């Protein structure tokens, strides 16, 4: 694992967090239940991505695997 790869993982984690914030804001403003349902599905997907990326960061910085997914019940 290179420092460059870790930097990219950290950037991806930040972008996943930003995407989650945007979808949460859209959920609050969504005009219909159908829109909210679609946005919830997208938000869950982004959350799964964030867990996977954070697990990789933990693995490459501590040598331990699966810590985030174990704490959150895994990725659905």
Features:
76 residues; mainly alpha; 3 helices
Characterize the structure shown:
The protein is mainly α. The chain has one domain (3-72). It contains three helices and no strands. Helix 1 (3-29) runs antiparallel to helix 2. The protein is elongated and about 45 Å long. The mean pLDDT is 89.
**In terms of structural class, how would the helical and strand content be classed?**
mainly alpha
Spell out the helices and strands N to C: HHH
Total beta strands: 0
Mean pLDDT: 89
SSE layout:
Elements: H1 3-29, H2 33-62, H3 67-72
Short synopsis of the structure:
With 76 residues, this protein is an all-alpha fold. The protein is built from 3 helices and no strands. It has one domain (3-72).
């Amino acid at each position: 694992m290179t420092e460059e790869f870790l930097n990219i993982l950290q950037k991806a984690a930040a972008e996943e967090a930003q995407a989650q914030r945007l979808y949460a804001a859209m959920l609050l403003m969504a005009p219909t239940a159908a829109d909210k349902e679609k946005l919830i599905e997208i938000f869950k997907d982004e959350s799964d991505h964030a867990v996977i990326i954070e697990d990789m960061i933990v693995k490459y910085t501590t040598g331990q695997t699966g810590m985030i997914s174990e704490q959150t019940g895994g990725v659905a």
